[in-house]
Each structure stands twice: as structure tokens, then as C-alpha cells.
Specification:
This protein is α+β, with helices and mostly antiparallel strands and about 575 residues long. The chain is about 20% helix and about 30% strand. It is built from 13 helices and 39 strands. The strands form ten sheets. Strands 1-16-15-14-20-32 form a six-stranded mixed β-sheet. A six-stranded antiparallel β-sheet has the order 2-12-11-5-4-3. Helix 4 (about 180-190) runs parallel beside helix 11 (about 470-485).
Length: about 575
Amino acid sequence: MGNSSSNAADGNGVGQDNKAASSGKSASSKQKAADNKPIPDPAEIKSKPVHQVICEYNDLEDGQMKEVEVEGQKVLVARDQGAYYALSSKCTHFGASLAKGALCQGRVRCPWHGACFDLATGDIEDFPGLDSLQSFEVEVKDGKVEIHTDTVALSSTKRVKPMITRDLECTLLYLIVGGGPAALECAESLRQAGYKGKILIITQENDPPYDRTKLSKALTSTASDLALRPTEFYNVYDIHIMTGMEAFSVDTDMNHMVFRGREWTDYTVEYDQAAICTGSRPITLDKPGTNTFSKDVFYLRTPAEANEIANKSKGKNVVIVGSSFIGMEVAASVVGKAKSVTVIGRSAIPFANLLGEQIGKIIMELFESKGVKLVMSSEVEELIGNEENLTQIKLTSGETVAADICVVGIGVLPNTEWLKDSGVKLSERGHIIVNKYNKTNIDNIHAAGDCTTFPLFIDGDRLVNIGHYQMALSHGKSAGMNMCFKEEPLKSVPYFWTAVFGKSFRYCGFGNAKEDEIVFHGESSKFVAFFVRDDKCIAVASLTWDPMVSVAAELMRAGIPIPASTIREDPEQLHLLVPK
């Protein structure tokens, strides 16, 4: 059957055993090696203590935040329930000013993409982003708020949450299948929770975990550009990664999995616990001509595919089949570089099922104003070309569209076929069913990310599948913590965004635009929309109306209802619901 788990991992993986860390103690002495920047010689680091008054005690009321400058660095100052806190001022994800975010019950949430941080510690609690904030000591004396820190801490705006390293005397092996954000966060959470054994990530990807959400927005990016962690990080924390290996089968009685390599070589790995984070794959276009012109048909999955789309689009007729977020982001990326860009969508209005017709029309008009042609209520009938190349696409309406390349974005399927006879329970659509601890029906197997169906706590624990980057990271954390028997339930509010033509659309919650009432405020250039069901807001969407979505997400997480009466006349009344 091939190599054992130890041989396979040590011979083919990123990250090697670190004998110096065999004690399993905190990796703080090694942590700086995981930073993207070169490690300075400690003797060259010149730090000085900082003791500075940053505000008067009465400058802020409970629930308020502001930025102050300390030794040339921005610091976030917040007051919550009478206490003051000082943290790094920028979100560790994309650098948004947290002072413009949402503060609720001891947490601050980023206004852009919803990452959350603990006010007292700076630890990241919800995603996206991986790193935590610096937290500074604060003292209130004689009515003044003073910060106590040093210049080195001030200059380092983010930090890795404390993690331990492997103890070589621990013989346990925890296996993580898949190489996306859920897999990485699962591995990090294991180390944060105190797991000292071996961690092995096996993925069919060619590269260690990277941010796939950026592919459709930056088509020329490489895997190294998008890497979620540098290679040194995996060495520091003893996380092994095997790439180019596809999960083939699992024996849940014997606790071993079989993986198949590029050369049809099988590897068998025996595990103590496993987390399945295999994600999803694009649905292929099954129409006449698809195979004939396969070199001109693309499914955006890897950096190599994104690069090829970018290169082949220049001066060509590009057709996007499917008005999904990925498809529309690709259209926005290539317009202006391609000869023409056409989007073919089955629905009459893009995103109408999720965001409603009014917002869908706003997005549609935005794309059309930028030169993207949208052919809606249409489907592909056939791909047509000459002997070598695709030249046009015929629609079921009989219309033909000029096409030199075709990018397909018509949905995804979970990567779970290999589990069908394993005993791991799957939904009718093939998703792995997990409980609120991301545990499957098999005691020592958890699952996380796009390949799962899970109980959504803000919707009465209804089983749902949500393919969002932020949710995948939250799943990974839940799986890792609960593989260490922490019994921490998944409590993450769905939060996603799309950025096109310099505009960022945000959404939190879990609504149904076909059935929910939509309370809309604003206009096409700035709006907030509340999705109402049973006289309660269950989802919020916005454009340039921050931090409205983040405030709503914090209220939902805290279990604080958002009555429709509160936001019908004045959406800013939402802020009044936040506890002070």
C-alpha cells in the first residue's frame, strides 16, 4: 500500500521534527522565526519603556473607541463597562482601522470583513485573519488613562497567538485532510489548545495553504503571494504538510486513511484523530464542445489557472458562464484588458436569491457601466469553434456570443466521494454532517469547512452548508479545539464580502431574499438592507455604510434580537441595541 505515515510525512512534507522543542513548551522563543520579516539580532534591538497619558478617563463613554498616537504608532483605546483597554489599532487581516468597527461585550469587530478580537488580551476570536493584536497595559490614575509598554511592542502591530511545539515523546498523530483555511486553522488551534503530538496535513493542492478568495480578484497572484503562512511557520510549530496527495479511502475501524499520489502511488496513514477539511470543487460544464475546446475552458481553482486566465484574456473575447461571486469577480478583473467580457447567467438578476432584486440590479448596473455585458435568463447550449480554438458560445435562446476563452463558475460540489462507504454520515447533497463541535458520527473524526453541513446557532441549530472563507476558518478552530476535548461549540455568525470596481459589498447572517422582507435604506452608491423574518432582522447587507454589518453581526452573536421596528425608519438606531 505504500509508505507509513511517518515515512511519508518526513520525506515529503513541509516542516520537520524539531528535537530542541521536545519538551512541548511554549514556542515563544521560536515564534519570531515564523514572521515574514528577517529576524533581527537581539543585540541590535533598541527598545525603551513607554509611559504615556493617552486620554482623560471621561474622554470616552462605555462602548466608545478612538485612535491615539503613542511614540509615532497608532493605538486603539476602548472603554467597556468602565474599564479602559489599549490594543494595536489595525485589523490583522487587511489593516482596517478598528476604531471604526463594532464594540460589544468585550470584543471589537473589524468594520471591513468581520474579524473579532478580545479587548483584554487582543487574541483573535473570529475570522478572517489569523493573527492577534498586541495588547498594552493600561492604568487609570487621578482621572487620567496611561499606557505602559515599550517601543518594540508598539512597532509590532500583530502577533501569533501562543502555541506550543511538538513533544517527541508524544506518539499521537492527528491527521488533517485538506489544505485550505479550515485545515490550517485546525492545525494552529491544536497547538494553541496544547496538543503536543504530531500534526500531519495531507492535501491534493500543490502548495501549502493559501488565500484562494484573492484568486478571482488578483488573477496574476502566485501561491507564494497568497500563502497564509510562510514556510518557516510550519517548521517552528512542527506542522507537517504533504502536497499532491488525494484522499482515496478511510477505514474508520482500523483508523487509517489511504492517499493516492500523482504517480498512482498509495500512502497509508494511521491516525489517532482526524479532521476532514477537503473543501469543494467546481461543477464542470457538461455541454457539447466543452471537451473539444478544453484548453480554452477554465475553472478557477488554483493560482496556475488564475494566471492562465489573466494571460489568455488580454485582447480576447472572454465569456464567464455563471453569475456567481467568483464569476463576477473574474469579470471585474479582466474587463479593460480583454477585448470583450460577457457574463451568462441563469437568473434574471445576479445575486437576487441571496441579496434581493434591488441590490442585484445595483450590482448589475455597476458591471454594465464598466463595460461588462450581462446576458441573463440564459444558458449555454454549445461551445463552437474551428479546428483548434473556441470562437463562440451558442445559447439556448439561439443567440451566439463571441468567445476566445470561457471561464466557468456555476457552483461547487463537496469533495467527499471517497467517504461514501466509510461510515461517515453524509447529507443527501454529499456534505459531511457534523454537530456543534464539528464532530462527525465517528468519535475520532471531525470535519470543517465547505465540505460540511453544520448546525447554525443563529438559526435554531438548523443544518446548513455555508461556503464562506470566514466560516471555514471558524470551523477549523472549532475542530482543532474539540479534537483536544475543549467542548467549545461553534458560535460564528456568517460574514462575507465581495470587492469589485473599488466597491465592497458586505453581508452577515443567513437570510433568504425570496422569502424575507427586505428593508432598504439609501441609494445605489450607499445603502444598508435588513432582511426581516417574523418581525426580526436575520441578515444585513451594505455598501459603504460601515460598520453596520459588523454591528449587526456582533448583536447576532450575542443573541440580542434586532426588532424590525428598530431599523425601519432610521437604520442608525441599530447602534442603540449594543449593550454599554
